Amino acid sequence: MKKLLGTSFLLLSMAVFGQAKEDSIQFSQISLEILNNGKGYTELKDLTKNIGHRLSGSAAYEKSVQWAAQKLRDAGADKVWLQEVMIPVWERGKESLHIQTSNGKWKSLKMLSLGNSEGTGGKDVSGEIIMVKSLEEYDQLPAEKVKGKIVFFNHPFNQGYVQTFLGYRDAGVYRRTAASLTAKKGGKFAIIRSLSSAFDDVPHTGAMKYDDDVPKVPAVAIGNTTADELEKLLNNQKVTAKLNSNCGMKGEKLSHSVIGEITGKKDKSVIVVGGHLDSWDVGEGAHDDGAGIVQSIEVLRTFKKLGIKNNHTIRVVCFANEENGLKGGLQYGKTVKESNEKHLFAIESDAGGFSPRGISLEMNEPQRNQIISWGNLFLPYGVYNFEGRYSGADIYPLRDMGVPTAELVPDPQRYFDIHHTEEDTFEKVNRRELLLGAAVMTQLIYMIDKNW
Amino acid sequence: MKKLLGTSFLLLSMAVFGQAKEDSIQFSQISLEILNNGKGYTELKDLTKNIGHRLSGSAAYEKSVQWAAQKLRDAGADKVWLQEVMIPVWERGKESLHIQTSNGKWKSLKMLSLGNSEGTGGKDVSGEIIMVKSLEEYDQLPAEKVKGKIVFFNHPFNQGYVQTFLGYRDAGVYRRTAASLTAKKGGKFAIIRSLSSAFDDVPHTGAMKYDDDVPKVPAVAIGNTTADELEKLLNNQKVTAKLNSNCGMKGEKLSHSVIGEITGKKDKSVIVVGGHLDSWDVGEGAHDDGAGIVQSIEVLRTFKKLGIKNNHTIRVVCFANEENGLKGGLQYGKTVKESNEKHLFAIESDAGGFSPRGISLEMNEPQRNQIISWGNLFLPYGVYNFEGRYSGADIYPLRDMGVPTAELVPDPQRYFDIHHTEEDTFEKVNRRELLLGAAVMTQLIYMIDKNW
Hints:
GO molecular function (chains A, B): carboxypeptidase activity; metal ion binding; metallodipeptidase activity
Keywords (chains A, B): Carboxypeptidase, Endoplasmic reticulum, Glycoprotein, Golgi apparatus, Hydrolase, Lysosome, Metal-binding, Metalloprotease, Protease, Secreted, Signal, Zinc, Zymogen
Largest interface: A-B, 28 and 28 residues
CATH architecture of the largest domain in chain A: 3-Layer(aba) Sandwich
CATH class of the largest domain in chain A: Alpha Beta
Oligomer: homodimer
Signal peptide (chains A, B): 1-20
Distance between the termini of chain A: 33 Å
Order of helices and strands of chain A: HHHEEEEEHHEHEEHEEEHEHEEHHHEHH
CATH topology of the largest domain in chain A: Aminopeptidase
Number of domains of chain A: 2
Subunit structure (chains A, B): Homodimer. The monomeric form is inactive while the homodimer is active.
């Protein structure tokens, strides 16, 4: 019995060892293929330089829909289609912010209206600026002190976090709520210090949201050094601000997410890999989220190129409208619910095209533990961190239906220097970092496809 | 007895736990101080923009010596001094490389002479180019096929490695040996494809070496896309190259490494942290190795700022002449040997100012294992990789004397895009990535100082 047990154990060990070795070889082939021959970087150049930024509802977004469909066909998808999505249309138009100090002169400040914000309808709106550093400080201000004023929410991005997403989370509440908080006490509009880790004057846009019961006053962002200068002025004198902007919601429009897949050889259960195709209307949407799009297409191309037989259907979804409505993700989830199409797993890449460090897992413990047990396979590719328990916003609807979801976790140090700005350009993306992220997603999907 | 053992174990656990907690708090304070208040990034801007590149023997290098001494005093060093070093002087001068194809026209190629290479003495040297892809291929060429020719060593940087330093290692032999290999078979000069991971026309310089027994023919580097174009031409036609250059060794000169320290409270055993102050004569020497210099100074500043009582002397060494002679490191080691000054540990940062991922350890197993046992403390700072068994080149002499040595291991994906080029500028360095590297070195030195 003892000997038999020993033999069984040996055979089992050999099988497991053989398995791990086979997987390790496949991981290496995937990485070699992508680092040597990956097309993601040149595709990202094409997307960012020939189409550029592509806010939902814009002509550029519609161009990117055709572009993504073509790239999926080029990558070898068996089937490519557009999924109809009704999206909100927000337009920026012209905008300017000026301040006047005690010397009477007006000075222009570099700024961006926040996404989804209403503007001033092309008229000047002005008033005295009052500054607060925190929500707590604002809560204590009596309404009469805010009435007719401009509120400057001067909350700094916390540089002390190693995980910059925590700084973004903390400061995010200011971007989302500043306008309605201002309106509730009768203020005319809100200025926020950007959610930015950079020491520069670049303003960061991003989605805000109005409460139902208050007037829709404008909200704008200024960069960190601009905010520093304004803070200094306000510590010494009265400052008047004047905003003139044309932005606002312009109804809804029919648009599309783009989907391509390679059909499963064993069954039609679906593994989703995706990013969002839309971007904000500044810069080039290179890291956010052109990177996620080209990485996802690279996954599909690599399966085809290496001739890996996928048991299940591997589907790339290029989601519409993540930035200011999440309508692409919602529509995709709704369609899955209605069709009752079985989804095994979904992963999104939407945290920038930087060197991968981990995979965040939002699923039950046995599933988590199984993926974590593959950790040694990922280590040579720089992936060691499986601590996160969140996933990409576009796949929340899948998560809420019980699908195990995940997100690629790249190095976070540089993201909030350029996130939602004119600085999010192709030049900020490194070829090897981008491709290594695609390799890691391909490796994970290879394991999921094989073992689930 | 059992109970007693239980109690002892409990007390021991509490002590160990208390210890780990205390260390964890100290790690956090170090990281917060550096990410919030670190001066390394602005100091790097000052060094790169106001002094710029600083090859050993140049006036700029001498300026950087004064600069580093002042920064060490500003950081709170108890003692700052210059260590005399005799350094080789190499100067580039004017240089140009042209090729002539079958249409008879001459075309200029973007190039850099390799460091330490002799030039053509300002005269045109020309000949037909022959191309080889590998040393093996070159070895098989009879001398008569090389005689009077220009040899183009067209060995590509291997993009397939995740660890780019392996690609650098493999291709490095071409940079070091191309000139003497060419001379041995009677060739006039050598052209190498740069040791570069970038798909651009930027040439990478770097040290080469002459064998004693052969003529010192010139060696130059061209960028990857230039090499691609040249390869394409050579596949179809005869191509002549013409080099004109003034570079060469200009004897020796007295120069200095810069040293600053905070004296140990318990004893005078020394912990070294350093980088090299010199750079190549193109770009700004920002990642290589301005980053290592400002990170090392940040370590000292942080000990002083946080009032951490160092048991042993913590010494920052800004080594002279790493790039083309290693004389600073050699002189430092010689001085230590002569004085018999006890050295506990030495770490160098010389792999770029990118996000830290690990610490490479070159020491005996018990020492290694002790540092690895601290791994959980480092994990929140993105440091998980203790696999490496090498250390910085400037501290090899210390290693050879039995001192435990180490090197900071940053993310390697971007380094060889810009290494030894005009592109190694301040703009390529990210503030948070640079400072996080300084934090990790400070944390490690805190642990070594406390436990060794």
